[in-house]
Structure to design on (708 residues):
């Protein structure tokens, strides 16, 4: 006999719309079988009732014929021939009545019993299982909806345990009911044949047995046909028994294997997350806005088809397109205090969708799968193998390797640092410095197990007027700096003012700030870590480049998030191939040890302005360098002028002393007094000279001695 269609019991746990659609076909078939069997049962019932009536009528006829001789007819009189004939008829009819009675018994056993059993037991069992399955399905939907509404901020362990136990019980009940329902529907495909063939076979065998009572010769073709039908019925029965045994074993195996999956959030250690998928299907909750501030969540079956995300509701024949996920972005979001929410945004940013997974495993697999599809890995011949290779490369990207130069053969960044001479272009010349650094190991550039900061620390408000400005020292993790409202901005007197739109990718501490490859290695590790952990969120800021510092400004509030003193920026670079990536190294004093300095590398993404930003930083450093040289020259000139002024004052003072001495000499020479008086004058002069010597101090005494 031809093959019989079966429902896949292995897919009952997934409960996809395709399985439900196939189940609907089997249910329609069961309804059609039930309608047809009811009609066939009514027809066979009429045959059985007719045979019973025929048997009773024959027996009554035989009885009446036997009682003919006892009848007293007024006009007939005694008719022995008639009586004898009727007795013979009565005997024959009585034998026929016995044959009909046997036929009625055979019809009841061979025809009516099988079809009655099929109608009353098997078909009613299908209807009962259908009702139980519908109730179990509704209970599971109610439980999973209640579980989805659990708050992740205000978790109540008792409520969570009750909801989880409810989900486990309802899902287990639905799965087991569905498997038994599928088994019954599959078995029905066999039983419907038996239910139609076996009664007909019993009817024909009863009729043949009835005819054999009157005739020993029956057509051989009829016997052969009936024999073949009987053999076929036995084969179908044996096949049915074997299939039922196989399905029962499958149900037992699936019950054991699927028991942990009844939990809404299975243990990821027993069921690891598959990050190399390029196809994914399952139920998700979709957020739909119903008003300005209100929204609703609908549970639908989602699946990927190539580069498209599709959804399908229960009862739908085919799925509908949700969005094109080629080159899309996917990120985890917090939405309405629900867990496991993520957002998918199309490549042009015009369409987005917020979805909620049922478990952490599904949540991570959906994000990884959409991320793999967005890279168009599914277009290759072996997408999962390529995805595994890409993820393995990403894992190796954050693992130090012995050779730094081999890992950077294909991509070399363009580096800018503060040179001793004037900077002419953004590329710069690495020269012998790069050749010497190419032999360094990775550990000499980046400290192993260095934590990566993927986001800027939340900005603070602007300082109030009169508040002291924060210091310019920056550690690895510091609060952003505000500005004083009562003071003039430090960048107002700056010659250079350039503003750029940048997005912060991450920062990490580095061990060296002399090698230009430090910035490139930091770019590689931060991008690899973002790819591994599926971090796609970036903070957008305005980068202000001036001759004093670099500032990150909030575009909304104009609050200064971070301030980098320009002298502390010792190294800066832009990627050679990806012009949007650039970074710089900031050297700052340690917080605990005064003599220890730390170097932190900051990586940003711009709108194809990486070289322009590095050129601007280089120009600012050149201007600051020349301004520093001019400042030093000015300070030196001021010192020289002070020395000259001091010398001029001393010279003027010395001339005044000489003039006073000449005046005293004239007074002494013009005096014509006696020797006594001259002695007294000498004494007076000497006294005045001594007083002058005391006024002149040591320098005056030395000069007078030299003059003498």
């Amino acid at each position: 006999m031809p093959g019989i269609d079966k429902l896949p019991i292995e897919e009952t746990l997934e409960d996809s719309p395709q399985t439900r659609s196939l189940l609907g076909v089997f249910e329609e078939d069961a309804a059609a079988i039930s309608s047809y069997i009811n009609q066939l049962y009514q027809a066979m019932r009429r045959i059985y009732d007719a045979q019973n009536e025929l048997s009773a009528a024959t027996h009554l006829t035989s009885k009446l014929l036997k009682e003919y001789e006892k009848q007293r007819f007024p006009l007939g009189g005694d008719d022995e021939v008639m009586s004898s004939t009727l007795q013979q008829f009565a005997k024959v009819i009585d034998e026929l009545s016995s044959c009909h009675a046997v036929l009625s018994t055979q019809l009841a056993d061979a025809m009516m019993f099988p079809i009655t059993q099929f109608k009353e037991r098997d078909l009613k069992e299908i209807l009962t299982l259908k009702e139980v399955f519908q109730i179990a399905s509704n209970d599971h939907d109610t439980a999973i909806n209640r579980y989805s509404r659990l708050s992740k901020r205000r978790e109540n362990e008792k409520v969570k345990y009750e909801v989880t136990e409810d989900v486990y019980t309802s899902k287990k009940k639905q799965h087991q009911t569905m498997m038994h329902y599928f088994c019954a529907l599959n078995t029905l495909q066999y039983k419907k044949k038996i239910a139609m063939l076996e009664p007909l076979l019993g009817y024909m065998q009863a009729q043949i047995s009835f005819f054999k009572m009157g005739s020993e010769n029956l057509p051989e073709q009829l016997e052969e046909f009936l024999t073949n039908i009987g053999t076929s019925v036995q084969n179908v029965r044996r096949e049915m028994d074997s299939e039922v045994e196989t399905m029962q074993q499958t149900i037992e195996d699936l019950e054991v294997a699927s028991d942990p999956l009844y939990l809404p959030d299975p243990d990821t250690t027993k069921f690891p997350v598959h990050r190399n998928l390029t196809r994914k299907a399952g139920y998700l909750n979709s957020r739909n806005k119903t008003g300005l501030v209100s929204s609703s969540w609908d549970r639908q079956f989602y699946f990927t088809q190539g580069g498209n995300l599709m959804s399908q509701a229960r009862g739908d024949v085919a799925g509908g397109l949700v969005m094109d996920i080629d080159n899309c972005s996917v990120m985890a979001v917090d939405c309405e205090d629900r867990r496991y929410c993520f957002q998918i945004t199309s490549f042009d940013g015009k369409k987005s969708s917020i979805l909620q997974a049922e478990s952490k495993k599904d949540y991570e697999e959906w994000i990884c799968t959409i991320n793999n599809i967005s890279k168009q890995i599914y277009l290759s011949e072996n997408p999962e193998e390529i995805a595994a290779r890409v993820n393995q490369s990403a894992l190796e990207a954050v693992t130090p390797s012995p050779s730094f130069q081999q890992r950077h053969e294909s991509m070399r960044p363009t580096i800018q640092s503060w040179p001793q001479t004037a900077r002419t272009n953004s590329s710069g010349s690495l020269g012998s410095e790069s050749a010497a650094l190419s032999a360094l190991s990775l550990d000499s550039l980046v400290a192993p197990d260095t934590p990566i900061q993927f986001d800027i620390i939340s900005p603070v408000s602007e300082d109030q007027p009169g508040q002291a400005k924060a210091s310019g020292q920056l550690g690895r993790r510091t609060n952003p700096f505000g500005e004083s409202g009562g003071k003039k901005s430090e960048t107002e007197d700056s010659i250079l003012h350039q503003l750029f739109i940048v997005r912060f990718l991450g920062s990490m501490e580095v061990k060296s700030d002399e090698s230009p490859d430090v910035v490139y290695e930091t770019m590689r590790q931060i991008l690899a870590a973002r790819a591994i952990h599926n971090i796609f969120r970036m903070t957008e800021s305005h980068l202000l480049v001036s001759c004093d510092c670099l500032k990150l400004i909030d575009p909304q509030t104009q609050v200064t998030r971070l301030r980098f003193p320009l002298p502390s920026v010792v190294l800066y670079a832009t990627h050679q191939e990806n012009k949007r990536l650039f970074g710089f190294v900031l050297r700052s004093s340690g917080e605990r040890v005064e003599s220890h300095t730390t170097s932190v590398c900051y990586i940003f993404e711009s709108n194809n302005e990486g070289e322009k930003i590095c050129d601007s930083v280089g120009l600012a450093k050149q201007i600051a360098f020349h301004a520093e040289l001019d400042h030093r020259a000015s300070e030196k000139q001021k010192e020289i002028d002070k020395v000259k002024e001091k010398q001029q004052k001393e010279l003027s003072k010395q001339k005044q002393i000489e003039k006073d001495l000449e005046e005293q000499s004239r007074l002494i020479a013009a005096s014509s007094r006696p020797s006594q008086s001259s002695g007294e004058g000498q004494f007076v002069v000497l006294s005045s000279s001594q007083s002058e010597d005391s006024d002149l101090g040591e320098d005056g005494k030395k000069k007078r001695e030299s003059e003498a």
